[in-house]
Amino acid sequence: MKKLTILLMLCFSPCAVSDGLPDLGDTSQTVLTPQQERQIGQQSMMQIRSSKQFLDDAEINDYLNQLGYKLVENSAEPGLNFEFFALNDYNVNAFAMPGGFIGVNAGLLLTTQSESELASVLSHEISHVTQHHLARMIEGQQGDGLASMAALAVAILAARTNPQAAEAAIVSVQAHSIQKQLNFTRAYEEEADRIGLQLLQKSGFNTHAMTEFLERLQNSTRLLEGNAPNYMRTHPITSDRIAEIENRVQKQPYRLVPDSMSFQLVRTKLIAAQKTAPEAIAYFSDALGAKKYGNPIAQRYGLVSALLRNNEIERAAQELAILRKQAQNNQIAKNNPMIETLTGKVNRAEKNDPATLTFYNTAVQNFPQHRALMYDYADLLLQNNQAENAAKLLTEQLARHPSDVKLYDLQARAYAMQNKRLEQHQAQAYSYAWQGNLYAAIEQLELAKRAGGSFYQLSTLESDLRELREMLVVRVKK
Q: Is the pLDDT higher at 347 or at 146?
């Protein structure tokens, strides 16, 4: 199926509210179908992906999705599509949007002190989605079109991530009556707590972590003299809520669940991102020297990354050798794809010879779904004039990740090197379309037409252009 057709089906197809839908257990299903919720969420995500707030780091986002889907598998709707993503925001917050899109601020990732605590937040947000709380929040807008509801979803997002910006966002979509709906009701929060605890338990995490995280946030509010973290505002945490959760978990045994190495490495990446390269080198060197805080494998990972950023290649290679030896002797860290990706980066910086290509070829076979590794391998193939192999690799990855803008950009480069102008401009058009830049997408498809092609290819381009222009007309009318 065409990539743009997938985009149109998910995001822009006209969608009238259905009548006479079967009762699925909550009134929201008579207003918005799951497909309609997904369409609203997709439109909102296009705006988020094109903003500076979106944390465009495949390793962090893939980790969130791996953890999230471990929980989703045990939910009431294991077949529901979810997408977990990170925001480059160091305020402590997380939020759910229609259609299974769940955002996690970098600040929350750093504030959680265990993987079970992070899982407790995700399970809570997943429960908001599976219980269709968001659909109920916007059911009063059923007379509006899909685009209006998507704009409303963005207004809700703005309010839940940045309460100060809420008023302007709401006014911009003329949703004057929605202010009272911006935060979930107490009943919704309690339901998400209850079902989230069930997800935690079924998924093998420590259920006591939910109360530990909430109590720490509540205590921080007292220390900050009322300047509560955003999570406290968007998910009002009361003593009654914590007591109710404690009552549910007190009969359950306290489970010591070890954190995954990926959880540790993701947090290390975020810590390093807050510092300059020299600051990060000093920080991780001190951590390793003191041996008092943090995971030593994660700290050395951070040190190697910082040395690479600072162009200290020789020392980075030396520390990497120690890191790999430590990882191989640690059952949790052994064969971690993030360490493998870092190894590839050091190898490229150090020599970038045919042996590096061999390393990547083996690595992508061992970790076929690790996108950061695929980005680097495809780029290396292009640098070594192996555009055909790169294009094949990227096409396979796009089948798994049809909204990945980086994959489309790399694919466009691969086609350009092969002088396949139609395919080059078509891939670039899909990249722009997924970012919501319809004018640029149309321009690229026009260039693809001028390049010439088969009857089928040209028919496909005409169909895509027609639908993009229709979308543009709808956007202008708004």
A: 347
Predicted confidence band of residue 11 (pLDDT cuts 50, 70, 90): very low
C-alpha to C-alpha distance for 408 and 390, rounded to whole angstroms: 12
DSSP, collapsed to helix, strand or coil, labels residue 90 as: coil
- Give the C-alpha separation, 426 to 468, whole Å: 13
How many residues are recorded in the chain? 478
Query: Could you give the C-alpha distances from 350 to 317, 340, 346, 347, in angstroms and in order?
Result: 8, 15, 6, 5
| Cα 319 from Cα 116, distance rounded (Å) | 30
CA dihedral 322, 114, 163, 436 (to 10 degrees): 50
Bigger pLDDT: 466 vs 6: 466
- Whether 207 and 173 have beta carbons less than 8 Å apart is answered as no
Structure pTM? 0.85
Q: Answer positive or negative: Cα dihedral of 53, 56, 62, 63.
A: negative
Bridge partner list, 129: none
Give all strands of the β-sheet with 94-97 in edge-to-edge order.
83-87, 101-105, 94-97
Nearest to 293 by CA among 113, 60, 41, 449: 113
What number of other Cβ atoms are within 10 A of residue 265's Cβ?
26
Q: Looking at the predicted structure, is the pLDDT value of residue 177 above 50?
A: no
Contacts by 221-230, CB closer than 8 A, 24 or more apart: 229/91, 229/92, 229/93, 229/107, 229/111, 230/91, 230/92, 230/93, 230/105, 230/161, 230/162, 230/163
* Distance (Å, whole) CA 450 – CA 425: 10
- CA 32 to CA 268: how far, in whole Å? 40
* pLDDT over 50 (residue 153): yes
pLDDT in tens, 191-230: 999 999 999 999 999 999 999 999 988 887 665 445 567 7
Helix (H) or strand (E) segment spanning residue 20: none
Please give the distance of CA 265 from its chain centroid, rounded to a whole number: 16
Torsion of Cα atoms, 205 then 197 then 263 then 394, to 10°: 110
Per residue, the 3-state secondary structure of 180-210, as one string, reads: HHCCCCHHHHHHHHHHHHHHHHHCCCCCHHH
d(CA 414, CA 2): 19
Burial class (CB in 10 A: 0-12, 13-18, 19+), 459: exposed
Three-state SS at 23:
coil
What domains lie within the chain, and their CATH numbers?
A: 3-249 (no CATH), 261-477 (1.25.40.10)
Band (pLDDT 50/70/90 cuts) for residue 157 is: low
- Are the C-beta atoms of 391 and 414 separated by less than 8 Å? yes
SS3 162: coil
